[in-house]
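Appendix B. Worked example

We walk through a single record from start to finish. Start with the input: the chain for Helix-turn-helix domain-containing protein, Mesorhizobium huakuii, length 207.
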Amino acid sequence: MAVEPSTIAATKTAAETRPLRADAQRNRDRLIEVAASVFAERGIDASLEEIARRAGVGIGTLYRHFPTREHLVEVVYRREVEGLCAAAGELAAKHPSDVALEEWMRRFVDYIATKRGLATSLRILLTTNSTLFSDTSGRVSQALRQLVEAAVADGTIRGDVDASDVLHALGGIYSAPDTPEWRDRSRRLVKLLMDGLRFGAGKSVKA
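Next comes the structure step. The output line below is what the pipeline stores for this chain.
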């Protein structure tokens, strides 16, 4: 069912500008965290009732924070993007550049799993919230670019790599069949991709 743009905008304003008590904020944060997991697991079949139950709150509490399914989806999607982008800097600070890149791509698999689960509602949001994807898509690309360029610069991956090519390869994970072993297979593909990126590192690689 389509949601009017004014409805999403109104609920977003109400939920995000009204101050919350500490216990209410904890409930909201818990609902967002659980929703990301349930959407990743259940996809289109994820129910708001299950999300509320797993979060340990009543369905009324969920609706007070997120009056529509699409509003919850938008908040979860933005949280996933923010977490993925923040991880780039955190990983780069803790690991060698190629290890940071590989770990980030493994996290990208988890991000894609959640995004696949949100797909139906995201398509609705695409028609009602024109800024959502323009706000977020460039941030993911930039996070990956920083990691790739750092690994190229210190010679831990091959020097003829462009971040857009890596992102294109990772995009294939999204379109793979949604089977029970999808996540494990996707992580194996990340490992294969990293093996290819590391091959010839520090040397001239012929096309």
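Two observations about the output. The CA atoms of residues 85 and 139 lie 7 Å apart. Confidence is low (pLDDT under 50) at residues 1-15, 203-207.
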